[in-house]
Specification:
Helices cover about 35% and strands about 0% of the residues. The protein has 2 helices and no strands. The two termini are about 20 Å apart.
Length: about 70
Amino acid sequence: NIVLSNLVADGEEQLSIFDDIEKRERQYKLTNVMDEIRSKYGRNSILRGISYTPASTIKFRNTLLGGHKA
């Protein structure tokens, strides 16, 4: 999966009084750790829970080149 959200230069961020800064920092750290695990052990090493349902295609798609047959 690829998730892009609120793209800004690292260190430059417009915050709101309604933002939960601690939650945002935890999410950032979690995302980085997940990326490191995938880099080390492969794309299927850590997936969202929904990816383990019979209807999910993500495990299969992760074996393809760019999500397509090579």
